[in-house]
Structure formats: structure tokens, C-alpha cells
Amino acid sequence: MNQHTIDLVNKQGLQFFGSVNASISHELKNIFAIISETAGFLNDLTQLSKQGKKLELSVLENCSNSISEEIERGFDTIRQMNQFAHSVDDPVKETSIADTLALAVKLTGFLSYAGKAHIQDGPANDITVFTSPFLFQTLVYKTLCALYKAMDIKDELTIAYRQDDPSGITLVFSYDRSGDLKDFPDPKTADVADALKATFTIKESALELTIPRDNDGLQAALADGQTP
Amino acid sequence: MKIILVDDEKKFVNMLAKRLSLRGLNADVAYSGEEAVKKAAKTPYDLAVLDLKMPGISGFALKRKLLELQPEIKLIFVTGHGVIDKNGNHDHSDDIFLAKPLNIDTLIEIIHQIIHPDKP
User: Fold this and answer.
1) Residue B33, C-beta contacts closer than 8 angstroms, at least 6 positions apart
2) C-beta atoms of A29 and B15 within 8 A
3) Can you tell me the ipTM of this complex?
């Protein structure tokens, strides 16, 4: 990994962190907007009740349930934000494929152009790769974004992963209708893939991302403090 | 006055419509740009309150479609983004942008200012 790539990856890492946090805060604002309007509506009803209008218990119950649901949605969003924030704790470590995919699907789900994605059950024993969890998260997120943009929003993406041999893991993103992926990976995504020694293969109805089981070069570079 | 509220956050628009109704303002709701275009093809509206970021047709794209159907319709954009990106608003008009969560009294004041600009 040369210095040019390291600099690009560092800059992109910050941009990625910012864009994910922006989409999370957008989600939280939507949640607060619903809670705010529901609380406002309850206040409206209270004022009407003071003027003698009878309150319907079912309306109060619906409002209460709605607020509870949105608070749970908010907690779930914050859990994902926390999990994402901790992805920079360790420069390199054993990183779960299943956890990385699950978080990337949830984080991209906050984007307005995101379609649906279904993760197929993996092997009984979770597969891990020794890599940078943050950069791997970045790569999977960028891949999902590119696929969502290429697909119709009503189409569903199926994601599976397999270990073909001891040296590498392959993530398979399958779609019914092939969108326009001729410019994928874009230069920024290619730089992240290069840093992780990951490769893409685009097929008629699937995009495959192969990542090495161990990335010694990345470990050495990170030990020198060159990348996040 | 007839208003349409468009946002993919269903609970948000439903609750906002109820609160406007309690204040004497009649509002239809649509949960997507596509649904809003269908409703606007059948019903004349004085004002549309649009979410900026929606799946499918975005707020700015919806604005263009609504203006084709109803050139006199007034528009308010609502967004959950902290920084309002107006880059997609190609005609650089004086559309109003409000941040979520909304203040209902502010919204109603703005609605009245838009619909009756000559009234003090």
C-alpha cells in the first residue's frame, strides 16, 4: 500500500464517518419529529378536554403506543451508531462478516434511495477476517450504496457469504435485475478495496467481493500509524 | 384552503394533518412523491408541504411535477437534515425550508403568510 493510497483512504475514512453520522442524525430527527408531533397532539387534546370535549381512550392509547415505538426505534438507531463508532477502536482485528454485513445493511437503510436487502444465514460458525473493521465496513457500505443506486428501489438484494478456501472470504450480492454497474468500483471505493486487498467480480446477476482472510500488509502499515 | 402533506414518515404526516385539522386547516396526506402526483392530478391544492428526502421522487423533483400540474401551488419544504442542501432546487426560487421537528404555530403562521401575503 503506497502513501498515495494511504492518504486517500484516511481522507475517505473521515468523509465516510461524516456521511454515516449525517444519515443517522437525519433518522433521529425524523424520530424526534414524530414524538414531537404526537406530544403536541396530546397537548391539543388536553386543551380540548379542558374546554369540555370528551377524550377518547383509544386515541390516547394509540399516541402512547406510537411514542413507545419511536423511542424503541431511536434506541435501535443509537445502538447502531454506537456499534459503528466502535469500529475505529482497533486498527485491525478479527472482524465478523455477519456483524459487518448486518450493520452495513442497517446503516444504508437510513438512505432515501436504499432498497431492501436480505442477508442469508451464513455457516454455523461465524466467519471472520483479520482486517481493519472500519475500512471493511466502509467498503461494504459503499458497495451497498452503489448497488441500491443501480437497482430499482422496489428490487430486493440478497447477500450471502462463503469461504471458498482458507485464504479468502467471498461476499455475494445477488439481484434480480442488473443495474448500471459499469463504473463500479469508483476510484474512491477502489482505493479502499486496494488497501484491504479486496477484489470485485461483477456477474450478470451478482456482484462478488472477495477479501483475504489475513491482511499482513495492512497490519504492518497500521502498526506504523499510517491509516486509521 | 387545501393542503397536501408529503412525507414517507407516515406517522409524522398523519399526526401533522390531525393537528392542522384541529386548527381548521384541511390537509391531505401522501406517503410518496408518486402518490402526491396522483392526488394532485385529481385535486387542486393551494399548498404542498414536502419532505426533501424521500425514496423514489425527491422533494425537488416532486416540486417540478406538482408545478406542471398546478402552476399556482405554493410550496414549503421540510427536512430532517441539519444543513439544508438547495442544490437540487434548480430554479433558485424563494421556497421556504423548515427543519424537523416542526413548531406547529410557526408552520401555521408561514402557511397564512404564503396563502394571504397581503394580510398583516
Assistant:
1) B6, B54, B56, B57, B58, B59, B61, B62, B65
2) no
3) 0.87
